[in-house]
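User: I'm writing a tutorial on reading structure tokens. Could you give me a worked example: one chain, its sequence, then its tokens, then a sentence or two explaining what the tokens reveal?
Assistant: Sure. Here is the example chain.
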Amino acid sequence: MNFSLSEEQKMLQETVRGFVENECPLTRLREIFDGESDYDAALWHGLAEMGLAGLTVPEQYGGAEMEMLELALVAEVLGAGAVPSPFLGHSLATLAIQLGGDDAQKERWLPDLASGTGIATIAMGEAGGCWDPSEWQLDIEDGRLTGAKTYVTSAEISGWIVVSLVGGRLAVVAREANGVKIEPVDSADRTRRSSRVSFENTPAEVLVHPVGERVRDAGLILLAADALGGAWRLVEMSTDYAKTREQFGRKIGEFQAVKHQLANMAIQVEPGRALLWYAAHAFDHIPADAEHSAAMVKSHITDRYTQVSRDAVEIYGGIGLTWECEIHMWLKRALFDRAWLGLPQLHRERAAKLSGW
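And here are its predicted structure tokens:
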């Protein structure tokens, strides 16, 4: 049995990595991070031209018809570059319509979403840190919504918002529909800014199939993939910095304690790769284990990302605590990955229950 990536999958990652290096270098990332919006039209159009907006969408709707593993491999590269884009929310909203919509709903929304000319996002969180489908309280009555969702990414630039409902159902709302109000929320991660979205007697269309749990699991996998990429980028950046910074007349990378810390950072991150690949594969091919593996991979890798971010700040020393040092952008992205869709302890508890503990 072959447990490595195929040549096509490796090429996909290399292509996206080359794009990120050319189009979102550190200077551009800083500009966006310090700017008024996390949306860069040129970046998004470039990603869409590569087919990333509709990576899992069937070919008949204009997509590449790939699987969750390929989507996760792309998320890993974007996480390594801390790329600001609507990729996370758009991918989940598109997947929700792909999995939950009937033929008419797919035909109506998927072509535009797959091409990237239309952008969508997903609204799953509710007040009090309620992310799990069993906790969703918002409901629809006579085709209309009244209520609110929290920490919705890319809401201001999305044409459609897929909203989670009681019972694991999902509904599609046009951003310009009556009663939609979007209020920016102050959050640490300025590469994926969030909003509170409220609805007041807003028209919505419920997707035929209740696939909320499946979409939640997909989100957990994509967060883990983003975290894996970001954590490895911090290991590489910290190693490079340790080879150049001098203290007491020596490069700090020559000190045994620093060598140990860098080695510990690496061995915290790399085992997560197998977890991620398995969870992404299970999502499409091993349904009996899909929910458990998604919970495990999110809880483990996002925790490791947070710790590696803090370790990187220590390697950089005093400058690591300043705004001018790039490390803080990945640290704040790590905090987003850890919290969005529920903290690691929530998913560890879910995984234990799913295992019969």
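What the tokens reveal: The beta strands are 120-123, 140-141, 144-153, 160-164, 170-174, 180-185, 194-203, 205-206, 246-247, 250-251. The radius of gyration is 20 Å.
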